[in-house]
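Predict the holo structure. Ligand: nicotinamide-adenine-dinucleotide.
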Amino acid sequence: MREDAPPLKGFFFGLASPCFTMIKAVLPEGAKSVTPRHYLICFTHKEDVMKVAIIGTGVMGRGWITQCAMTGNEVHCYDSNPETLEGTVAYCGGLATKAAKKLRIDDPEYAAKATERIHVHQDREAFVEAAKGCDVFLEVIFEDLDLKCRVLADYLPGLPENVIFWSNTSSLDIDVMGEAGGRPDRSIVTHGMNPVPLMPGVEVVPGAKTSPQTVEFTRTALLEMQKAPFLAPNIPGFWVNRLLVPQMLDAVRLLEQGKIQVEDGDVGLLTSLGHPQGTFKLHDFVTTPTMLRVALEMYQASNDPRMYPPLILMRMVRNGEHGAVSGKGFYDWSDPRNPKARDLSGYVVGGADHMIRAIGA
Ligand SMILES: NC(=O)c1ccc[n+]([C@@H]2O[C@H](COP(=O)([O-])OP(=O)(O)OC[C@H]3O[C@@H](n4cnc5c(N)ncnc54)[C@H](O)[C@@H]3O)[C@@H](O)[C@H]2O)c1
């Protein structure tokens, strides 16, 4: 861990021209122009290459792997599902290409150079050995507190003291995970948004025992990874999902009642509230199983009935309609460039008879 990390400086975006020389030093190779994120990095830039061990190479794990590799860090990754692991490097290469386009980086080799820094471990023991030499151990597995705690109790005690534990959980209690892993002072949530390389925000959630050094290290490391960290409270759903999840579930409940259709709902939010994508499309990117897990975990932790997942979500998960990854969710993703809003009137629960049929009773 880099205890010598410098204190955070202010971000003076207005000082464009005096800063340009400094910024040029940290611009990614091939970058044609400067974006606000380059200003962020230049204030905290250090020469170190971080080593990050990532467990879980699903939707979010792949985003984090790409982000780490794109910003010059060495990444070691592992997933208990060999099939998921197999497609990881190719997927991350595609994500890096998309990110390069967005950052206006004109380097045809950019994605290839990034993927060279990704080390995929098919073997659990080899991953553990690699993790021993890392600065950070980042967990990105299913949103299931019991499972996360079991995995942390299994992996963390074997790693050196200096390894910082990051969790990408979107709603769970870092105090419980910190204790499970046996290093509560060096445990912290780094909740990235999907897709990680295209969404700068990272919610940083310290627990009651997280040390100030861990918080400072994490914020500095995230800035160096070209992320935009912000502090959030350790409550179910933290800041972002505490506001977002009830709204997303309300939308699905209205759909289930037959009050709104997918297309109208999303067009309404896009054109009236300036959302970058509608709530139903967002469900499809998050995936319905993850939404279901997040809702149930937040419900268990808060006992708030608005967090209880609607029946339609459970039925979609059961029917394999997981969203963009499975080709079908609230949209039909047969043509991923042109998803079509689905007619989900078959899922409307109109009354007691409907409900009884829906649950197969
Ligand atoms: N999907 C999103 O948009 C989103 C956004 C922010 C945060 N998150 C959070 O990120 C985390 C991961 O979500 P995701 O969407 O990437 O899920 P996912 O289902 O796409 O991936 C989870 C991966 O974890 C692996 N895994 C499960 N148990 C394991 C174990 N014991 N050892 C090794 N690997 C194991 C699975 O095989 C799977 O590949 C969750 O905590 C979720 O709440 C998700």
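The chain has two domains: 51-231, 241-354. The CA atoms of residues 75 and 349 lie 46 Å apart.
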